[in-house]
Design goal:
Elements (H helix, E strand, L loop, with lengths): L2 H14 L2 E3 L6 E3 L26 H11 L12 H4 L51 H6 L8 H9 L4 H9 L6 H12 L8 H6 L9 H13 L14 E2 L13 H4 L8 E2 L21 H11 L18 H11 L5 H4 L8
Antiparallel strand pairs: 1-2, 3-4
């Protein structure tokens, strides 16, 4: 057994044994081994590094409990995990747009949550610049959780076992907005997806290799798609119009910048785990990868802000579409999607 494999196995075991629960299932007791945040060897340095938010077992466990607690919503019906489901790589399977309190439907698709520590801005329009404050958007949005942070703080102060959990995480039973947001971040920033077949091939792990179709698809992808969906995150984090409509019904990035040149522009989404994160686009209009690729092949509209790289579309034959799809499926990280460390129970 190689030293590399042994180290990996020990790390995986320590993570799997990280938590023990009391009989009532509420109080999460951190084990001796500490959870860590590791940068994959094929990734760059993250934008967020926990320097001012010390990562601990107890902080992570508290953040996860808050993430999945529907009692935080105004009508106690939805949690962060309602729109960000682990089996869909923390996206919202089969829902075009987010569904919040009182069955209210938002206007944008819920994006997947992983590799957030490498982002410098959040949401489709980049309206939030700090990962720690990003949950406030869902908390206060009338069509998401429909409440406010002070109401949540009051609830937590009067709901067992939260005072004890905050004490375990931060050394005090005090509960305030900063600690609530820091604990949620300890959970969401640790959601790292970097163990797909693509990653193993890039890192030359074991005997991992692309099939002929996957390799051809990879080369086609680099030729036709990588200028926007840059490796290794499969997004360049920019905001672009991809010609979904002649005139966008959603103002997009311009709502944040106030610039007419940003009208109808949205963040380039990651393609990691794309096999499970449909529906696609900011409004969830496409339910399959076939629809997405046909849009780029024949459906790009000459919008006034259309990205220059998409003028004329991206011509793809039927065979090329299948080859690109074969490659895109190598971006699926089943270890991440099935990791019980991130699960509600």
């Amino acid at each position: 057994m190689s030293r590399k494999f042994t180290v990996f196995a020990m790390l995986f075991l320590s993570i799997a044994l990280m938590y023990a629960c009391s009989k009532d299932g509420d109080e999460i007791v951190p084990a001796a081994e500490k959870i860590t945040f590791s940068v994959p060897s094929n990734f760059s340095a993250p934008a967020y590094n926990f320097e001012n938010n010390k990562l601990t077992n107890a902080g992570f466990a508290l953040g996860k409990k808050l993430f999945y607690d529907a009692r935080l919503a105004a009508d106690k019906s939805v949690s962060c995990g309602s729109c960000h489901q682990q089996f869909a790589a923390f996206a919202n399977l089969d829902h075009k747009v987010s569904h919040g309190v009182n069955n209210c439907q938002g206007k944008r698709n819920a994006p997947p949550l992983f590799n957030l520590a490498w982002q410098k801005a959040f949401f489709w329009d980049g309206g939030v610049k700090n990962i720690e404050t990003s949950p406030l958007n869902a908390i206060t949005d009338a069509c998401e959780m429909g409440t406010d942070i002070e109401t949540i703080i009051t609830l937590l102060k009067n709901t067992a076992p939260y005072p004890d959990l905050f004490k375990q995480a931060f050394g005090s039973t005090e509960i305030n907005s900063q600690l609530v947001l820091k604990s949620i971040t300890q959970f969401t920033a640790v959601l790292v997806s970097a163990n797909s077949k693509y990653d193993k091939v890039m890192r030359k792990e074991g005997a991992a290799t692309f099939t002929s179709a996957e390799l051809t698809g990879y080369n086609l992808f680099k030729e036709k798609c990588s200028s926007c969906h840059a490796e290794p995150f499969f997004t360049d984090f920019s905001y672009r119009s991809n010609g979904l409509d002649l005139a966008s019904a959603d103002e997009g990035r311009s709502h944040i910048t106030g610039l007419s040149t940003d009208f109808g522009k949205f963040r380039v989404p990651t393609l990691r785990n794309i096999e499970f994160t449909g529906p696609y686009m900011h409004d969830g209009r496409f339910y399959s990868l076939d629809e997405v690729m046909e849009h780029y092949n024949s459906g790009v509209k000459p919008a006034s802000n259309l990205d220059v790289k998409l003028k004329g579309g991206i011509q793809l034959s039927t065979t090329e579409k299948e080859q690109i799809k074969a490659f895109l499926k190598t971006l699926t990280d089943n270890d991440f999607i099935k990791n019980k460390l991130y699960s509600e129970s």
